[in-house]
Specification:
The chain has 30 helices and 18 strands. It is α/β, with parallel strands linked by helices.
Length: 675
């Protein structure tokens, strides 16, 4: 059993009585082993039913790893009954279990929806010298607001943050009121909405009860996640985290949540895991010298278990920025360590650009977290959107994405077309196409509100006779949406292809057969041709026909891969939701790992290079000025260096010859006593 493998500190924590328990687990001290042992203890010793245990993690990978370890000791049916995963994945499953209808959307989709609302507002009637927040930034700001507070409205939160946008508060508030109404109308939910919906449902429905809720990486919880944890009906709470590794302040993570645990939960027990099994004594000593400059929220006493002879961390100093990248690439090439066990960790993405280029020059394979994944490619997204409009005829965002490929139809017009079809079909665009209601003008007339930046926008209508020479059938030509004055012949042709696709696809229930139909459809052929042409344009503007054909073949090959993936699902809805929630957490491929500090969290490597340790870049002064802190930058440094097991190299450059910038070393190097 897992308990037999624990040290005394871990065993004490894993077998503690039910209640409010916080385990402070420093880097490399075996927090995963402790959580796994706790779950095993509850199942075997306390006879807790697996469905009464809830494990919340910050990545699906972490949850899968823990379940895999537990599965060694328990039957597969036990694992299937245990509820585990990220806050979002768990909330999604539980809400579906309770009969809630959810259409989960990625932020990039909803940003487009918000833009259609934002763009119809006018701000020029307000006499203000402050530039208006653009829709994409406003969406991110509102998301941070949702994660940061549960008490304030958006305007009060902006004011508390010191925003100078007071003149626009009413318009911003009204934009999000309309945004919420539109999301509700089409059943759209983003990741924050999912947690809010789960929290509010738990207040009304007490059918979900747990003996124990376990939370991994507790230091990274934000106020929204914390309120959800409190909303669960539970007998016991078991939180594991390390305040020295709290590095998600930019995303609303609140270090005060872990810091105030004992105050918020009366009678709470605090445990410390201090024995480090990962890093050598000299690497750990350097990390501790730096992190001890931060306030101590709980007492810690570090102990090193690796006592053998080891190399001290080395400081590498270079005269020029790019020289640094070239030199480190050369060192990696000479290393006896396998590339997969080497990581280059950076604070800023520009650092990774230079490292990736020099590693390629040395013919060293590398993988960089954050590249375009299979599911982020435009062709796969197009297939998923075509799949989505069949599964959910209210999916306006999928419709808008599809019509990005229609010549002369932008997001604003495609939204108007969708709303018109929806009105004609009483909420169903399929009926809007094939069984439309008798409405001569299905297009919305905008409301006028001077204060909120809303002004009249009358629609003009054009004659459908302009499409008389096209090969359209009479039913299609009679649809009122073709009367829109801004609709071109090319736009109407694309709508007709979509019309034919909807007519034939609606009857296909099997996801693999539906994906196969999509790949062979006229509308996807149009999209494939568009993408292949784009990818075959030469520098002189001409089309390389060979390259275009090769691009087409690659697109269709990706479609075949998706078709095979769909074969594992009985319904298209399940297939779509699995892909939305289960995005890859690590880029594919082999080679040296190029990782931001945030991406390196939870990983470990034999050899680690932490690069660009110049004041301004690491710590990142620009982000500090936008609400960050030196304490959080120091925690980022601590996380970066504690990824190293055997060898640690820290580097900086004195000058950037391209930008003509002189650098001073990071203060963390002085705190580490390397200077």
């Amino acid at each position: 059993m897992p308990l037999s493998r624990l040290n005394q500190e871990q065993l004490h924590a894993a077998t503690t009585k039910a209640g409010s328990n916080l385990i402070i687990a420093s880097a490399g001290t075996g927090k995963t082993s402790t959580i796994v042992a706790r779950i095993a203890y509850l199942l075997k010793e306390k006879r807790v039913k697996p469905e009464h245990i809830l494990l919340l993690t910050f990545t699906n990978k972490a949850a899968a790893e823990m379940l895999e370890r537990i599965s060694i000791f328990f039957d597969k049916t036990v694992m299937e009954r245990l509820e585990s995963g990220t806050f979002h994945a768990v909330s999604y499953r539980l809400l579906k279990k309770l009969g809630k209808k959810i259409s989960l959307k990625q932020p990039k989709d909803l940003k487009i929806l918000l833009k259609t609302i934002h763009d119809k507002r006018r701000f020029d009637h307000i006499d203000s010298s402050i530039n208006v927040y653009q829709s994409s930034y406003l969406y991110d700001l509102f998301s941070l607001y949702q994660n940061s507070t549960i008490d304030l409205n958006f305007s009060d939160w902006l004011e508390e943050k010191g925003s100078e946008h007071g003149d626009y508060y009413d318009i911003y508030e009204d934009i999000f009121i309309e945004f919420k109404e539109l999301k509700n109308e089409y059943g759209y939910v983003d990741f924050n909405d999912l947690l809010i919906m789960m929290r509010e449902t738990l207040k009304e429905d007490n059918s979900l009860k747990f003996n124990e809720v376990l939370v991994d990486e507790y230091q990274d919880t934000n106020n929204l996640q914390s309120s959800l944890i409190d909303a669960f009906d539970k007998k016991s709470l078991f939180c594991v985290g390390d305040y020295d590794q709290s590095i998600y302040g930019f995303n609303g993570a609140n270090i005060e949540i872990i810091g105030s645990f004992a105050d918020r939960y009366k009678g709470a027990s605090i445990f410390n895991l201090n024995k480090n099994y990962r890093s050598t004594s000299k690497i750990l000593a350097l990390a501790n010298r730096v992190i001890e400059h931060n306030p101590r929220l709980y007492k810690k006493k570090y102990e090193v278990t690796r006592t053998q002879e080891c190399e001290a961390p080395q400081l590498l100093i270079y005269d020029e920025l790019f020289t640094q990248y070239q030199a480190i690439s050369s060192l990696i090439k000479l290393s006896n360590t396998t590339y997969e066990n080497i990581a280059v960790i950076f604070r800023n993405n520009s650092s990774a650009d230079g490292m990736e280029a020099t590693l390629r020059e040395e013919n060293i394979p590398c993988k960089r977290k954050g590249g375009i994944s299979f599911f982020d490619s435009r062709e796969i997204k197009a297939i998923m959107d075509l799949l989505s409009v069949v599964v959910n005829s209210k999916d306006m965002m999928a419709f808008i994405h599809i019509f990005e490929y229609a010549k002369g139809v932008g997001s604003a017009l495609s939204k108007e077309l969708f709303e018109a079809l929806s009105k004609l079909g009483a909420g169903d665009i399929y009926r809007g196409f094939f069984h439309p209601k008798d409405i001569s003008n299905p297009f919305k007339k905008r409301v006028q509100n001077y204060q909120l930046g809303l002004f009249d926008d009358c629609h003009e209508f054009g004659s459908v006779s302009r499409f008389a020479n096209e090969n359209f059938n009479e039913n299609f030509l009679s649809n009122p949406i073709l009367k829109h004055a801004r609709l071109s012949v090319d736009g109407a042709k694309f709508i007709f292809k979509f019309y034919n696709y909807m007519r034939n696809s609606i009857r296909i229930k099997n996801p693999k057969i539906l994906v196969n139909y999509i790949i062979n459809s006229e509308i996807f052929n149009h999209i494939t041709d568009f993408l292949a042409t784009q990818r075959a344009i030469k520098k002189d503007g001409s089309i390389d026909e060979v390259a275009k054909q090769e691009a087409r073949e690659r697109i269709l090959k990706k479609g075949d891969i998706l078709k095979e993936l769909a074969g594992g699902y009985k319904s298209s809805e399940r297939f779509l939701n699995a892909l939305t929630l289960g995005k890859s957490e690590m880029s594919a491929g082999d080679g040296v790992n190029l990782l931001s500090v945030h991406a390196s969290k939870g990983l470990e490597f034999s050899q680690v290079y932490v690069i660009d340790l110049m004041d301004g870049r690491f710590p990142n002064r620009k982000l500090m000025n936008k609400g960050g802190s030196l304490e959080e930058e120091r925690r980022l440094f601590y996380v970066a260096v504690t990824r190293a097991k055997d060898n640690l190299s820290l580097s900086y450059a004195r000058f950037d010859k391209i930008k003509k910038i002189e650098y001073v070393h990071s203060p963390f190097l002085k705190e580490a006593k390397l200077l």
